[in-house]
Specification:
mainly alpha; olfaction; 318 residues; Rhopdopsin 7-helix transmembrane proteins; three-stranded mixed beta sheet; Olfactory receptor family 10 subfamily G member 1
C-alpha cells in the first residue's frame, strides 16, 4: 500500500504547474515550431479526410469510411486538448493550469482517447467482416448498425472519462502542485495526492490497461483471421488490395496501443521515458492517421482526385 502524506495541512491546491517535456533551453524555439507545425498539419490533414468522406457519396455510404471520418474528428479534438498546452511549455507564458482546467483536460483526454480505442476495435471488426464474410457483410455491417456501434463507443468513452476524472480528483491535493508531465494525466496527478492511491492505481490498471490490452488482442485476433483469409485469395492483385486496406489500420493501431499499454500498465512508474513514449499516441498518432489513410488507401486518393477535378470543372465553367 502506498504511503500517504500528511493531509492535516491547511494548504489546498487551487492550480497545478505543468512542467512539460524536459528539453535543452537552446532547443526551445525549435521544439515550439515543431509541435506547432505538427498541430497545424494534424488539423488540416484530418479536416481534409473528414470533408472528403462527407462530400463523396461513394465514401460516406460505406461503414469503413464512416468510421474513418469519426476517427478524423476524434483526432482533431484530441490534438486540440493536448498540443496547445504542450506548446506553452516552450514559451515564457505561465505553465499554471487551474484545478478545474486540469480536471477538464484529464476528462476530455480519457473520453476522446478511450472512444478512439473502441473505434479502432470497430474498424478491425469491420475489416474482418468485409474480408472474411464478404457475402454477408452488407447485412452484418450496415449504416444503421455502424451508427449504433459508433454511438456506443462515444457513450462508453464518456463513462470511462467520468469515472477516471471523479476518482482522481476526489482525492485531496495539499501540495506540491508541480506535475512532472506535459498534460494532466492520471499517473502524474496521482503522485501529488495527499491520500492513499492504491484503489486509484488498481482501477487505472483494470479500466485502462486491461481494457486497452483487451481491445488490442481483439484487433490482433481479427487480423489473424484476416491474414488467413487473404492468403487464400488466389490472385496476387487481390491479396495486394486486401493487405493494403488492412495495413494502414494495423500500422496506426500499433503506434497507438503499444505506447498506451506501456504507460498505463505501469501506472506507478516514474520513468523519464514515459513523457516521450506518451507523445507517440497523443501527438504523433493523430498526425499519422490522415497521412497513412490517404497515402495507402486508393479509394480515398481517388475521392480526393474526383473532388479536385470537380472543383476545377466548376472553376472552368465560371
Amino acid at each position: 500500500m502506498r504511503r500517504t502524506r500528511n493531509t492535516s495541512l491547511d494548504a489546498v491546491v487551487t492550480d497545478f504547474l505543468l512542467l512539460g517535456l524536459a528539453h535543452p533551453p537552446n532547443l526551445r524555439a525549435f521544439l515550439f515550431l515543431v509541435f506547432f507545425l505538427i498541430y497545424i498539419l494534424t488539423q488540416l490533414g484530418n479536416l481534409l479526410i473528414l470533408l472528403t468522406v462527407w462530400a463523396d457519396p461513394k465514401l460516406h455510404a460505406r461503414p469503413m469510411y464512416i468510421l474513418l471520418g469519426v476517427l478524423s474528428f476524434l483526432d482533431m479534438w484530441l490534438s486540440s486538448v493536448i498540443v496547445p498546452r504542450l506548446i506553452l511549455n516552450f514559451t515564457p507564458a505561465s505553465k499554471a493550469i487551474p484545478f478545474g482546467g486540469c480536471a477538464a483536460q484529464l476528462y476530455f483526454f480519457h473520453f476522446l482517447g478511450s472512444t478512439q480505442c473502441f473505434l479502432y476495435t470497430l474498424m478491425a471488426y469491420d475489416r474482418y467482416l468485409a474480408i472474411c464474410q464478404p457475402l454477408r457483410y452488407p447485412v452484418l455491417m450496415n449504416g444503421k448498425l455502424c451508427t449504433i456501434l459508433v454511438a456506443g463507443a462515444w457513450v462508453a468513452g464518456s463513462i470511462h472519462g467520468s469515472i477516471q476524472t471523479t476518482l482522481t480528483f476526489r482525492l485531496p491535493y495539499c501540495g506540491p502542485n508541480q506535475i512532472d508531465y506535459f498534460i494532466c494525466d492520471i499517473p502524474a496527478v496521482l503522485r501529488l495526492a495527499c491520500a492513499d492511491t492504491t484503489v486509484n492505481e488498481l482501477v487505472t490498471f483494470v479500466d485502462i490497461g486491461v481494457v486497452a490490452a483487451s481491445c488490442f488482442m481483439l484487433i490482433l485476433l481479427s487480423y489473424a483471421n484476416i491474414v488467413h483469409a487473404i492468403l487464400k485469395i488466389r490472385t496476387a492483385d487481390g491479396r495486394k488490395r486486401a493487405f493494403s486496406t488492412c495495413g494502414s489500420h494495423l500500422t496506426v493501431v500499433t503506434v497507438y496501443y503499444v505506447p498506451c499499454i506501456f504507460i498505463y500498465l505501469r501506472a506507478g512508474s516514474k520513468s523519464p521515458f514515459d513523457g516521450a513514449v506518451a507523445v507517440f499516441y497523443t501527438v504523433v498518432t493523430p498526425l499519422l492517421n490522415p497521412l497513412i489513410y490517404t497515402l495507402r488507401n486508393q479509394e480515398v486518393k481517388s475521392a480526393l482526385k474526383r473532388l479536385t477535378a470537380g472543383r476545377r470543372d466548376v472553376g472552368g465553367e465560371k
